[in-house]
What we know:
This protein is of the alpha+beta class.
Amino acid sequence: MSTVLHRLGRTAFHRPIIVLLLWLAVLGGTLGVAATSDGQISTSMTIDDTASEQVLDRLQEDLPQASGGQGTLVFTAPEGQRLDTGPRAEAMAESATAIAEMPELVDRPTVAAEAPTGEAGPDAPTQGADPNAARPDAEQQPGPGEDAAGPTPAQRPLVVDGSPVPGVIVSTDGAVAMLQMQFTSQIDELPEGTVDEVVDVAEQAVAGTGVSVLPSQSLESMHPPIGGHEVIGLVIALLVLLLTLGSLWSAGLPILTALTGVGIGFGGAFALSSSITLTTATPALALMVGLAVGIDYALFILNRQRRLILTEGLSAADATAQAVATAGSAVVFAGSTVVIALVGMSVIGIGFLTTMAFVAATTVALAVLIALTLLPALLGLVGERVCSPKARERTRVQQAEGASHSTNRWVEALVRRPWVAIVAVVAVLGLAAVPALGMQLGMPSGGTDPRESTSRQSYDAITRGFGEGFNAPLVVVARPGEDRTLDEPDLAAMTQGLEGVDDVASASLMGIDPDRSMAMFNVIPEQGPDDERTGELVEALRATDNPVTERTGATLGVTGLTAVNIDITERLGAALPEYVAIIVGLSLLLLLLVFRSVVIPIKATVGFLLSIAATFGVTTAVFQWGWFIDIVGLDTPGPLLSFLPIMVTGILYGLAMDYQVFLVSSMREAHVHGQSPRRAIVDGFEHSSRVVTAAAVIMVSVFASFVLSDDPMIKQFGFALSVGVLIDAFLVRMTLVPAVMSLLDHSSWWLPGWLDRLLPTIDVEGQDHDTTGTPADPV
């Protein structure tokens, strides 16, 4: 492979214009297609074959209008005032009527209470239904939470001119009202501008009355959670590159190549978004990974080229070809490791997760390809200016004086006292990992958004006016046995049975299909969507011994946004151990092939497990326990994003193997060239540590800049990845690994002869083209 890469690097260096035009054509074409495509970002994250999805699929067949998306508009009065009387009540009634007339809204049966028994139509809304809506048996049975004296004290219908306003309920203090809506399609499938129009209609109707309109989280305008904060990471990266490379010409090249790769990957993803589903987190995740690895991979090759020029006196052309052959070989292996780890997520069989992984893997693959082709072409344009006369003179003086780097003193201290370093690192990482034992997973909800956000204000207003359970409504679908229909006593028994389940605040009939073979109920839990008891309630309703099934023999299915999110969290939590096992096995195999040692793969893998455990522990302490949560721009703790552990594990595994290869391969080559194991550790560390340190600082900076995002999901990803890289690069790879190798001495490189003969030889350092007289340095 190194021979092919050597030719590739030399060709790109001598024909830079052709290479540049090719990449510009790819970038321009991709962005052009993306700009003209009708793709969109989806807010829905679903997993096929979960219990909630099965219920939705059957609803789509039996009652399509009941399987659309739901949303809530919350109305709040000025402090100390009411909104359920006078002009304010009339304005809310006007907004509800205008919204109900929109073609994207399911018609609400306004005469159900007065209709003869059994005439309620099939168009009753699902999750967004009025929990106090009348049932077909309204004249015979009290409503949910009612008794002979009247409605539940928690809420009541909005009454204007003596008639209740369909879909609108008001808190008993009159300070908060809710308009719950059922759309004909999922919200992200509605015509563009529909949601904004709904909010605009409501705001125009209440304008001048002092009433505030707060759309729920599901009604927020969707856009990729990307803003100017990424620039901060790039600025820090540029400063680190300047300090590492000492030249503005050199420092700007990795930034330029990384942006090119991200532009192509980003544009390509949007271009395909009309045929594949992109969630809101997908573009941001691809951007942060693409920027980080794109800068680092280019840095590894560029640093190697400069060292060959400065220390070996090679020309820029020869040094570029040599760097692509040597450092480029390591970059190919490192990038392949990240890609394999990401693509490996497809074995879990979760659609939206697979899409996220493939988009991120594509940006990594582009980063490798660009580092091997576009970077040499740019170096061809820069020529000998890549190393300034000042840098050449400084290197000459250092060689003459035999200057010792501070990194030598660090690694020499580790070699002298390995037990101190090992015990300290294991103790620190073990302590940091403790919070992960109580890690709780969940999906995003308005309850953990920043307090100044509209979604959080809406969530808090609902909790204040009606109880937190109204933020987590469940849709329960009841089906009688074969050849049976649902009559009024059945419906009454089902409603009472649902209300008798622990942790149910209220239950109400939402609608029945025309042949009375299915009924839908709106069930309001006592707790919010992130509470463990809400998940237990979903399981209790699905169990065959629930009160409804025992009373009527009907089977229950549970769906709705809350149930879907609970099912996603459960499936992802169950898949995490399986994926970690895949990663561990892959790590052992790849490192065995690369380093031809039994001990080093085990040591590296154990180090990775320590890194990932500590990463989850620190992330749990901040986001779930609320420790120092202000530093990430949040004010309320909550569960970790359910797909964060799997994605972070895959990405960090690839990056950890990058640093492992770049550091330990230099140590291995020094040992192969005859140095003692401990001397090889010191020399190999000296060759690689400076650039690995720079690469790690760049990655931490890029990832940490995403903590400034307004999206709590992206905050968690940016924080976890920056902490993970910080831990793995500095505590594990640059501290624990040298200490353990020093302690094991010659045993570090032990490999049984029979296994040595079976294993193929993998040249990740490009030894065929290492013309220097020193150990091959992949960076």
